[in-house]
Design brief:
- By secondary structure, this protein is α+β, with helices and mostly antiparallel strands.
- The chain has three domains: 3-130, no CATH class; 177-279, no CATH class; 291-484, no CATH class.
- The chain has 18 helices and 14 strands.
- The protein has helices at 3-36, 41-48, 68-72, 80-89, 91-110, 121-130, 132-149, 177-185, 232-235, 291-296, 300-303, 306-316, 320-323, 333-337, 345-348, 417-431, 441-460, 471-480, and strands spanning 55-56, 74-76, 187-194, 197-207, 210-215, 217-220, 223-227, 237-238, 253-265, 269-279, 361-364, 368-371, 378-383, 401-405.
- The strands form three sheets. An eight-stranded antiparallel β-sheet has the order 6-7-10-9-3-4-5-8. A four-stranded antiparallel β-sheet has the order 11-12-13-14, with helices on both faces. A two-stranded antiparallel ribbon has the order 1-2.
- Strand 9 and strand 10 form a beta hairpin.
- Helix 1 runs antiparallel to helix 5 and helix 2 (41-48) crosses helix 5.
- The protein is extended, with a radius of gyration of 41 Å.
């Protein structure tokens, strides 16, 4: 940061502190002036003789809610005839006073002390109108003035002495494995060595990307002392400044120690004893992925194959109640996770004879999975478990799947192309619900790509007049994704 910028920031901070009280005072004065601008003789008469004015009960600010009828009920009758007589008797005086109040309020709103720096937007606009040439000249000279102020000064070799550094200025040292292990723990008691030999015992603390440590002195078997008789800069030093660590190799062993304090001498030292040690290993780092890849990626459980096995169970098992239910019902979570075999055949089979996990998955991507078990006459589109959470992070905990009877949309169950197109249409409709699509830019791109792919798949069927060739399928697609089908021509 240059001197000119620092000077500007300092001026703005001081100006802001001066402007806040002026704004508060201006707002309060504006409120009073706005009231006085509507002053009239009757209002002045009521202020002077409040007992003559008829008043309803109303409601005080600290009262509980009061019914409108109760608030409108008259609580003070007053004397309206006497009030009218008072206004008529003092008409000229009241009119003159009200006119003076209105004029003073208008003048107060227009008034601005020319000696004071402009504080309000209106005042700055007025100043710019009156000093347009001055302001234009300042703009022309601003760059040159800023360069002169920010000119870097350099002292002569003998003009000043260099200040001593707390730590030596050393070049960046290459990272070592033992330093990476220490940074994983961030802070604590550690021992370093080669193999089973302990060479250094220290207290380590990580601050940002830099690690600092204090080497302990050995006093006996598993007993060490922590020297406190020094300043903070001498007590904790960067790792590359500790001579005791200079002889360690990059792959030195690191142990995390369990420490018990034995004795404390205030301001002098702390004596500790090692009770146990655990070797520290370098934690594996997950690979970096882009936002779009992270958005559509599944959890570790899904990638390990358990996801496909769970959906295999879904496709192989059906409940007896489901067979007589509505063909296109929305399935609840417990219905998609726990099913009974329609005829019990798969349950009686030996596990080794059952189909491999994922055998009936037609397609699976980051958000949905399409399943078609040839042993049954329906197909399913399921939301992947990762997204079955509350929006906007997920798609919600209801409407997790869609089941369609193939015979309602296709003539051949072995090639249910129209059924698949309808399920893909439902997928896009479900994806756009509850604001899920608006929470991430990658979701919008996914929706656009899938919509284009659905249109292309429908076009490739080459049905005269457009569409899928199935009236029922076209009706469903037009209800869920109207943009996927052409508009029918009457």
């Amino acid at each position: 940061m240059g001197v000119a910028r620092a000077s500007r920031n300092s001026i703005l901070r001081r100006y802001r502190l001066q402007r806040l009280p002026v704004l508060k005072e201006t707002l309060a004065a504006t409120g009073r002036a706005r009231k006085l601008r509507h002053a009239n003789k009757r209002a002045l008469a009521v202020m002077r003789c409040p007992d003559l004015q008829k008043r309803p009960r109303g409601r005080l600010h600290w009262e509980q809610p009061v019914a409108a009828e109760d608030m409108g009920r008259t609580s003070h009758m007053g004397d309206m005839d006497a009030l009218a007589a008072y206004v008529a008797e003092n008409n000229d005086a009241l009119e003159a006073e009200a006119a003076a109040l209105r004029g003073g309020a208008a003048a107060a709103q227009r008034a601005w002390d020319p000696e004071r720096m402009p504080m309000l937007n209106k005042e700055w606009l007025s100043w710019l109108d009156e000093n347009s040439s001055l302001f234009a000249g300042l703009l022309r000279e601003a760059t040159a003035r800023r360069r002169n102020v920010s000119h870097r000064l350099s002292g002569g070799p003998d003009s000043s002495q260099a200040l001593p550094r707390i730590f030596p200025h050393t070049p960046k040292v290459p990272a070592t494995q033992w330093a990476e292990k220490l940074m994983q723990g961030r802070k604590g008691w550690f021992a370093l060595g080669a193999g089973a030999e302990v060479r250094v015992v220290m207290f380590f603390c990580g601050l940002g990307r830099q690690g600092y440590g204090h080497v302990l002195q050995k006093e006996g078997a598993k007993v060490y002392s922590f020297d406190l008789n020094c300043s903070g800069g001498e007590m904790f030093k960067p790792l590359h400044c500790l001579e005791a660590l200079s002889t360690l190799s990059s792959d030195s062993t690191v142990w995390s120690l369990d420490i018990v304090v034995q004795h404390v001498v205030p301001g002098i030292s702390v004596t500790v004893k090692v009770q146990g040690a655990t070797e520290v290993l370098v934690a594996a780092r997950p690979p970096r992925r882009s936002a779009a890849a992270e958005e559509q990626s599944g959890s570790d459980v899904e990638e390990s194959g358990l996801f496909e096995e769970a959906w295999e169970d879904v496709t192989c098992l059906h409940s007896e109640n489901e067979s007589g239910a509505e063909h296109e019902q929305e399935e609840c979570a417990h219905q998609t996770e726990i099913h009974e075999d329609l005829d019990g055949e798969d349950e009686r089979k030996d596990p080794a004879e059952r189909s491999a996990p994922g055998s009936y998955v037609v397609e699976s991507e980051g958000y949905f999975t399409l399943v078609d078990n040839p042993h049954f006459d329906d197909a399913k589109m399921l939301v992947r478990p990762r997204w079955c959470i509350a929006p906007p992070s997920g798609m919600g905990t209801s409407s997790k799947s869609k089941t369609l009877k193939i015979r309602d949309y296709d003539t051949e169950e072995t090639a249910p192309e129209c059924t698949y197109l309808v399920l893909r249409s439902w997928k896009l409709w479900r994806f756009s619900q509850h604001g899920f699509i608006e929470a991430h830019h990658a979701r919008k791109a996914y929706y656009a790509d899938e919509m284009a792919a659905l249109r292309e798949s429908i076009t490739q069927r080459k049905v005269p007049g457009g569409g899928t060739g199935s009236v029922a399928a076209d009706a469903k697609i037009r209800a869920w994704t109207p943009g996927a089908l052409p508009i029918p021509i009457a």
